UniProtKB/TrEMBL annotation:
InterPro entries in the cross-refs: YhfM-like_dom (IPR058780)
Residues covered by the YhfM-like domain: 28-129
Name the record gives this protein: YhfM-like domain-containing protein
Top-level taxon in the UniProt lineage: Bacteria
Pfam families reported in the protein's UniProt record: YhfM
Length: 132
């Protein structure tokens, strides 16, 4: 009995640590707007499809996260606005080709997220193609 309680407690602790390590705080997203950097959000594509948002949330939560402020010399490829159900928002600037096979998603609150080009293509296809 004592051994099974210790094993159960160990599983709970490992699960909690894994959750904290691999969760970047993207949840309860209501909609996502994306457009090229030089256009306003009203001219971009707005997605409210729950399946697309769930897939994109998974990509963002699995991204490598750093709390760092960058000063970048080049303009981002896209600008993405995430609107949450509590009506707050985050803005992420998407810098494709930031590093070899890496895309930088840089937030308005000095948070940097790195995803692979494969995940970038999947995310952009979901957001920009209304047929998917």
């Amino acid at each position: 009995m004592k051994k099974s309680i210790v094993i159960l407690l160990l599983i709970v602790v490992i699960g909690f640590i894994g959750y904290k390590m691999f969760y970047n705080g993207f949840s309860d997203i209501e909609s996502i707007a994306i457009q090229t950097y030089d256009k306003p959000f009203k001219k971009g594509v707005i997605t409210t499809d729950k399946d697309k948002i769930a897939t994109i949330t998974g990509i963002l939560n699995r991204a490598k996260h750093e709390s760092v402020c960058y000063e970048l010399a080049n303009e981002p490829s896209y600008e993405m606005e995430i609107i949450y159900k509590d009506k707050t928002n985050d803005i992420l600037w998407i810098h494709q080709g930031f590093d070899k096979n890496k895309t930088l998603l840089y937030g308005n609150n000095c948070n940097a997220y790195f995803i692979t080009e494969k995940r970038t293509k999947k995310m952009l296809n979901l957001l920009l193609n209304e047929n998917n």
